Amino acid sequence: MLPTELAELVQEVIHHKCERQNIELKRAGKGTPEKLYDTLSSFSNQSGGGIILFGIDEKNNYEITGVYDAQDLQTKVASQALQMEPVVRPVFTVAEIEGRIIVSAEIAECDIFDKPCFYKAPGD
Length: 124
Known about the structure:
This protein is of the alpha+beta class and 124 residues long. 28% of the residues lie in helices and 26% in strands.
């Protein structure tokens, strides 16, 4: 996704004020959400995958809050994705909207032969 496409998607989500089956919002203003495993699994197993949008606060009227640190966020999300079986490889896009940084993580659907995708605890 291009940054301009990310900006359009964010505006659409704010306009409709709701997530969709393939879009999940995470605030991430003070750090990376610690447990993204359910979302990574869900999007990897559903037809067409999904997109996680970081930097939007749905509990505060879908305000664009921005993320705390785009680089660190990407590193930590990728680290969680490596703990999935099979490994999930998010595709990240960063855009500035209203002076705030938004990050998206596109999660592709797993190949049918690799499903189900699930969290693999360290040491398993």
